[in-house]
Structures are given as C-alpha cells and as structure tokens.
C-alpha cells in the first residue's frame, strides 16, 4: 500500500478487468531504472506490451533519450518475446496547447522510428492518444481530439481498427501456447504460510499464475529463480554454462572475456561471466565476421560462452523460449540482450525430487 500512496510501483502488481472479449490482467511493471529487474519479471509474463509515453514537454524527451526508460522498456519487451505492442500517448491534456495534434504526431514519428529499429513492425502497432487522468480515449472516444480519426493495424492474421485504448486491447491476438512441452515452472516467489507449508508462486507457461504446496521441502531450499518441473519428463537441470548470441546495446567501454555482469533470465537474477568471446557476427544477418574477438563494444553482436556464478536453470531458446532469452545488466542499465543457443547441463544437477514423486516412481 505504501508504494501506491507514494505514486510509484516497486514490484510488479496485477490488476484484472473484463472486456466484452477478454479477461485482461494488467501487469503493472515499475518504470524506475533501479527497479528494472522487477520490470523484467513482469514483462516476461506478458502477451502484449502497452508502452505508455508521456506527451508533456520534457517528459517525453527524457524517456526517449539515449538512456531513457521508454527506449529501455520497449527494447526489453521485444527481447523478452512480447511481439504485440500498443503505444498509449498519455497526458494529452497537459500538452501546449492541450490535446495538441502536432505534439501527438511528433511523438508517433519518433517512437515509430525507434521501435522499428528494435524489430517491431509499426503497421501492427496501435497508437492511441489518451489522458488517463481525464479519461480521454480510454473507454470511449474523446470529444477533445476531433483530429484523431482512430488507429489501424495491418497484420496477416487480420486487420483491426478502433479509437480507444480498450478497443486496442480487444484486438490483441491470443498467442499460441506450447502446451505440448513438459511442465516447467520458474518460481517467482516463495511464501511460508501457517498451516500450509512452503508455497512457491510460479508462472505457468499456459499463461496462468498459480501457487502450489510442496511437502517436505524447507522454504530455505526454494528461492526465486528456481525452476520446478516433472521429474520423469525432461526435468529441469542446473546449467554448468551455456552458449548465447548477444547484442551489446549500451556499454561505455569494451567488454572482454572475464566480464561478469548480472543476468536476468525468466525469474532468475544472477551474476554471470562472459567466459569466452567465440565470434563476432553481423547483428542483422547473423553471419560470422570475426573469430575470437578480443573485445566487444556497443552495437556489436557475438556468440559468447557464459558461466553462471550460482546454480541456475536455463534452456535453449528453440526448446523453451521463456527460459532461453535474457537481459544483461551493469552500471544501472541494460548493457546487452541475448538468446541461448545451447546449454551445458551438469550431470548431477537434476535438483531435488520431492518425496511424493519418488513414491510415484517406486510404485510403477
């Protein structure tokens, strides 16, 4: 409650409502730079990102600047696999003059240019001028912006158009879920509830947040970033290391072998070493440019061998996408993003098997 009273979000918050078409869960992610790992936790669970940019003079410019949070959040959303995007141009009531068409067009042009560079197809992105404070174009069309003729998106799965932010949410395409894969649950939080025992709170890949009770496992043995799964069907295993394709986004110097920043992958937040720089590649085509580069700098793409500082479960992006993409943090900013190509799993790293699972195996 305290963070709400101060007008900020510290951890992710879930807000639910129902439209005429969908049950919508809003994952309210923090926008502050120091809380970016919590923002990543929220974003990694989303089917669609709603990027809210402030239209007020100075606010928008700060967010879209080289180190601004608008840029970083859009980039992280795309990297974490959120390919559907809606842009809400907020605080239109505070432009000069209020509800300025010119200001809106300036913002749309600049945001479009940036998200296109990241990888989004702007034809599929709905831009909506809104005022959350006044309610303009949130649920019903606003009389204050007669110049706005509505948004349109063009996509192979069906075109859509509308005027309000609510209509844009109703036009989100339901994603396909990898329901044929073995059960795999990255743990987001662990609670000790009286009379219940240890209760991890997890992200189900089917799209549902759920809690479950684990018997005979101490709360000390379970932590955020652990992965639970089926002990009989491709069980989660500890990674000794992994090979990844990374893109260096924003680092003030040079990155050499031995560099050890913090890596955010699914719910895990761990130190991880760049053990070997194997090759430098073209960031667009993926073609090899150089074997064994001595260093990497901003703008470079490379294949890198990485070694985690603590036990962690990750998977190749091709097998389990949510466990195979990551962001790299250092000096209070995202310095790189990447996808995992291959994982070297520890032979004895299958983790704990619960007593109930052991009994089930013996009974067969």
Structure overview:
The protein is α+β, with helices and mostly antiparallel strands and 364 residues long. It has helices spanning 2-5, 36-43, 59-64, 69-79, 101-118, 165-170, 355-363, and strands at residues 13-18, 23-28, 48-54, 84-90, 126-129, 151-153, 160-162, 184-193, 197-203, 209-211, 227-229, 239-248, 262-265, 268-281, 288-291, 301-308, 325-330, 333-345. It folds into 3 domains: 1-171, Rossmann fold; 185-228, Translation factors (Elongation Factor Tu (Ef-tu), domain 3), CATH 2.40.30.10; 239-345, Beta Barrel (Elongation Factor Tu (Ef-tu), domain 3), CATH 2.40.30. 17% of the residues lie in helices and 32% in strands. A 6-stranded antiparallel barrel has the order 12-16-14-13-17-18. The radius of gyration is 22 Å and the shape is globular. It starts with a helix and ends with a helix.
Brief description of this entry?
The chain is α+β, with helices and mostly antiparallel strands. It is 17% helix and 32% strand.
The end-to-end span amounts to 50 Å
Output the CATH class name of the largest domain.
Alpha Beta
Taken together, the total number of domains comes to 3
Mean pLDDT: 81
Attribute tags:
single chain, 364 residues, alpha+beta, Rossmann fold, Elongation Factor Tu (Ef-tu), domain 3, 3 domains, 6-stranded antiparallel β-barrel, 4-stranded antiparallel sheet, 32% strand, globular, disordered N terminus
Indicate the topology.
Blueprint: H1 2-5, E1 13-18, E2 23-28, H2 36-43, E3 48-54, H3 59-64, H4 69-79, E4 84-90, H5 101-118, E5 126-129, E6 151-153, E7 160-162, H6 165-170, E8 184-193, E9 197-203, E10 209-211, E11 227-229, E12 239-248, E13 262-265, E14 268-281, E15 288-291, E16 301-308, E17 325-330, E18 333-345, H7 355-363
Parallel strand pairs: 3-4, 4-5
Antiparallel strand pairs: 1-2, 6-7, 8-9, 8-11, 9-10, 12-16, 12-18, 13-14, 13-17, 14-15, 14-16, 17-18
């Amino acid at each position: 409650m305290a963070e709400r009273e101060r007008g900020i979000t510290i951890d992710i918050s879930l807000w639910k409502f129902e439209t005429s078409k969908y049950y919508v869960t809003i994952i309210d992610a923090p926008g502050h730079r120091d809380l970016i790992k919590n923002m990543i936790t929220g974003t990694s669970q989303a089917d669609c990102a709603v990027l809210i940019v402030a239209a007020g003079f100075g606010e928008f410019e700060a967010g879209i600047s080289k180190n601004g949070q608008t840029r970083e959040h859009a980039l992280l959303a795309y990297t974490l696999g959120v390919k559907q995007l809606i842009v809400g141009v907020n605080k239109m009531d505070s432009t000069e003059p209020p509800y300025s068409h010119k200001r809106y067009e300036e913002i749309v042009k600049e945001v479009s240019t940036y998200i296109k560079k990241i990888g989004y197809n702007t034809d599929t992105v709905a831009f909506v001028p809104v005022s959350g404070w006044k309610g303009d174009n949130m649920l019903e069309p606003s009389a204050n912006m007669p110049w706005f003729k509505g948004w349109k998106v063009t996509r192979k799965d069906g075109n859509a158009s509308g005027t309000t932010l609510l209509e844009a949410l109703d036009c989100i395409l339901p994603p396909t879920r990898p329901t044929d894969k073995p059960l795999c649950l990255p743990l987001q939080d662990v609670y000790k509830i009286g009379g219940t025992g240890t209760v991890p709170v997890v992200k189900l890949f089917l799209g549902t947040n759920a809690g479950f009770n684990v018997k005979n496992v101490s709360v000390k043995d379970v932590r955020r970033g652990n992965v639970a799964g089926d002990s009989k069907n491709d069980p989660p295993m500890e990674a000794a290391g992994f090979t990844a394709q990374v893109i260096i986004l924003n680092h003030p110097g040079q990155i050499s072998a031995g560099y050890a920043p913090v890596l955010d992958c699914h719910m895990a937040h761990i130190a991880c070493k760049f053990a070997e720089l194997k090759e430098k590649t073209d960031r667009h085509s993926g073609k090899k440019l150089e074997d064994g580069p001595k260093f990497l700098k901003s703008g470079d793409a490379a294949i890198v061998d990485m070694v985690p500082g603590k036990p962690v479960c990750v998977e190749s992006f091709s097998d389990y996408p949510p466990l195979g993409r990551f962001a790299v943090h250092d000096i209070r900013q995202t310095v790189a993003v990447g996808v995992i190509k291959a994982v070297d799993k520890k032979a004895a790293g299958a983790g704990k098997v619960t007593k109930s699972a052991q009994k089930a195996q013996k009974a067969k």
